[in-house]
Specification:
9 helices
Length: about 220
């Protein structure tokens, strides 16, 4: 697993991935030396690298950066790779982006313009990082939670579903990248089903609740 961006969601995913037996290569915009402590905490299955190296190393690569940083995501090493997009658009942080403000594009479709040869899947953008850590459950658990995914490549979605399953979650297929607005910031499936931020343990969410939340989204 390669990670472009190592903020709260990136570090949490890396922790879950290592726990599931995956090797992880972390990167950020500040350089590998700033991630040495994080990699050491995660153990021998983790290492720090440049964004280009992390992109090249991963069978699956997680892009977890501000939308304003999309132009800096390395495109060449991501060609043909399954890429997970966890990113959410926030104008107060990212500045206003006309195509996102007028809803002519989803943020994932915008990312795909910068990494056009990647096989992009939207996932993990709708859950608070503390809930992501605390709600992971083994396969078959009665209180296993579901996460929505969206993408245009069936093989990439299958690979991401397998990864998500390995770290303790089941998946609801939420459609194509053009449909991924249904899990964007402020929609019914974003954050709310898993409980308030003040409850760091969160609450498990089944398949039906996720499907219902996606279905009631309006644009």
């Amino acid at each position: 697993m390669g990670f472009i961006g190592s903020g709260s969601i990136g570090r949490t995913l890396a922790q879950l991935a290592v726990g599931a037996g995956h090797q992880v290569v972390l990167s950020n915009s500040r350089g590998p030396e700033t991630l040495l402590d994080t990699a050491a905490e995660l153990g021998p299955q983790a290492s720090a690298a440049t964004s280009e190296e992390a992109a090249a190393a991963g069978d699956i690569v997680v892009v977890t950066v501000p939308v304003s940083a999309f132009p800096h995501v390395p495109a060449a090493p991501l060609a043909g790779k399954t890429v997970i997009d966890t990113c959410n658009y926030g104008p107060e942080r990212d500045g206003h982006i006309p195509e996102l403000d007028n809803k002519s594009l989803t943020s994932s479709e915008l990312l795909l313009r910068y990494i056009p040869d990647a096989l992009l899947v939207k996932a993990f953008n709708n859950i608070f990082f503390k809930h992501l850590l605390s709600l992971a459950r083994p396969a078959g658990a009665a209180d296993r939670s579901y996460l929505p995914t969206a993408g245009d490549s069936a093989p990439a979605k299958a690979a991401v579903t397998e990864f998500i399953d390995s770290i303790g979650y089941s998946v609801v297929d939420a459609g194509t990248l053009a449909d991924s607005w249904r899990q964007a910031t402020g929609t019914p499936v974003w954050g709310t089903p898993y409980g308030p931020y003040s409850n760091e343990k969160g609450q498990p969410v089944g398949e039906d609740a996720i499907r219902a939340a996606l279905a009631t989204a309006t644009r």
